[in-house]
Write a structure and sequence with these properties.
The chain is an alpha/beta fold. It folds into 2 domains: 5-30 and 297-405, Aspartate Aminotransferase, domain 1 (Alpha-Beta Complex), CATH 3.90.1150; 40-294, Aspartate Aminotransferase, domain 2 (3-Layer(aba) Sandwich). It has helices at 5-10, 37-50, 60-80, 94-109, 128-137, 155-160, 183-192, 212-215, 240-245, 280-296, 298-317, 344-353, 366-372, 388-405, and strands spanning 18-19, 22-23, 25-26, 88-91, 115-119, 140-144, 165-171, 197-200, 219-223, 234-238, 256-259, 264-266, 322-325, 334-339, 356-357, 359-361, 377-381. The strands form 5 sheets. Strands 4-10-9-8-7-5-6 form a 7-stranded mixed beta sheet, sandwiched between helices. A 4-stranded antiparallel beta sheet has the order 13-14-17-16, with helices on one face. Strands 1-2 form a two-stranded antiparallel ribbon. It is globular, with a radius of gyration of 22 Å. The mean pLDDT is 97. It binds pyridoxal-5'-phosphate. Pyridoxal-5'-phosphate binds next to helix 4. The site of pyridoxal-5'-phosphate has 14 residues, from helix 4.
């Protein structure tokens, strides 16, 4: 199925604007994606017609609001093919989902001298919560390295795992290198040693179909705003058995069953991990975004983004002095690059003046830039609403930057 990009672009009004007199070319989708009109309409409709707090009301609006929230949970369950809605925890984002596991799983399972493994290509969100856990528990953080192409060195994984390893946390797709990690294989290796796996799916869920049962993944973290949904909403998928064994992360309303000053008992899944007023409007917006993404066609969108990636890669490599950081065999539509002797920040600033939005810096992955001994990169990350013409403008922009600094 091929995509009608000009029709799709009509769903994203924000793309249809000029900056500094130039049409916007938005290539910062790794940081956040734009929202289709249906998502904005869902949010606005919710505020205008249904808004009432969930789970605690007998009145009509509260019932409708609760129904929309729980339907959103079912939409997410279906989207990632989880077994049960109880395994879908709404959070504020991928970062919160990972922190939840690092705390709650960590409290239950990680003790002094135990080990936690993360990869060298993780976003800070999938490093720091584990470091904090290790500091709290006097546990040891071990690092699974990647090679100079940006591929995880799988043979090292078996070497790193010991009887003390309690969890492995790896990203599905690197937000800096674009690498799509072989997560099914990684999970299977870890499971051979009875080590559960958390996959950071902040970028992964936007690049192809995710089936948590097929992956047999233990935890999968999702950020709503990176998959065409609103900010402030995310998801933690977790296997029921593990979630049931874990202690709650935060205390408050909704996560309890009974409260007395002597003892509090906790609610069942998923509510045990959803303390306080949930972002129920965000959840409804996310559900609409997932339905929209499905209606575009996830495979078709991924294939088209791969075409954009290949086109941009070959055009960039044809420019003298351009170096791509991250050359894995399997990549999502994310390109990090450098122009010889030109600081990424200068490149980003000049491209911006041409209406081209890229991201510059270490992209919250300082260990990656340290690996390559660089300050940072220029990153262009594509979505299915981007066009080949926009990439041509990026290429012209890069040539102009070279001329200006040359
Ligand atoms: N993990 C990866 C791979 C990311 O790219 C990001 C955001 O850029 C995150 C985690 C954190 O996502 P959020 O800040 O939306 O929680």
């Amino acid at each position: 199925m091929s995509l009608d990009i000009s029709k799709i672009r009509q769903d994203f009004k924000i793309l249809n604007q000029t900056l500094y007199g130039k049409p916007l070319a938005y290539f910062d989708n790794g940081a956040t994606t734009q929202k289709p009109q249906v998502v904005l309409d869902t949010i606005s409709h919710f505020h205008n017609s249904i808004n009432a707090n969930i789970h605690r009301g007998v009145h009509k609006l509260s019932e409708e609001s609760t129904k929309a929230y729980e339907e959103a949970r079912e939409t997410v369950r279906d989207f990632i093919n989880a077994k049960k809605t109880g395994e879908i925890i709404f959070t504020s984002g991928a970062t919160a989902s990972i922190n939840l596991v690092a705390f709650s799983f960590g409290e239950t399972y990680v003790h002094e001298g135990d080990e936690v493994i993360v990869s060298e290509m993780e976003h800070h969100s999938n490093i720091v919560p584990w470091q904090m856990l290790c500091e709290r528990k006097k546990a040891i953080l071990k690092v699974l390295p990647f090679d100079d192409n940006g591929e995880i060195i799988l043979s090292k994984l078996e070497e790193l795992i010991t009887p003390k390893t309690k969890i492995l946390a790896v990203t599905h797709v690197s937000n800096t290198l674009g690498t799509v990690n072989p997560i099914k294989e990684i999970i299977s290796i870890a499971h051979k040693h009875n080590v559960p796996v958390l996959i950071d799916g902040a970028q992964g869920v936007k690049h192809g179909i995710v089936d948590v049962q097929d992956l047999d993944v233990d935890f999968y973290a999702i950020a709503g705003h990176k998959i065409y949904g609103p900010t402030g909403i995310g998801v933690l998928y977790g296997k029921e058995k593990l979630l049931n064994e874990m202690v709650p992360w935060q205390g408050g309303g909704d996560m309890i069953s009974t409260v007395t000053f002597v003892k509090t008992t906790y609610n069942e899944l998923p509510f045990k991990f959803e303390a306080g007023t949930a972002n129920f409007i965000g959840a409804a917006g996310l559900a609409t975004a997932l339905k929209y993404y499905k209606s575009v066609g996830i495979d078709a969108a991924t294939d088209y983004e791969t075409e954009l990636l290949n086109y941009a890669t070959s055009k960039l490599l044809a420019i003298d002095g351009v170096r791509i950081i991250g050359n894995a065999k399997r990549k999502a539509a994310i390109i990090s690059f450098l122009i010889e002797n030109i600081h990424p920040y200068d490149t980003g600033m000049i491209l911006d003046k041409m209406g081209i939005a890229v991201r510059t810096g270490n992209h919250c992955t300082q260990p990656i830039v340290d690996h390559f001994g660089i300050d940072g990169t220029v990153r262009a990350s594509f979505a299915f609403y981007n066009t080949f013409e926009e990439i041509d403008r990026l290429i012209e922009g890069v040539k102009k930057v070279k001329e200006m600094f040359g």
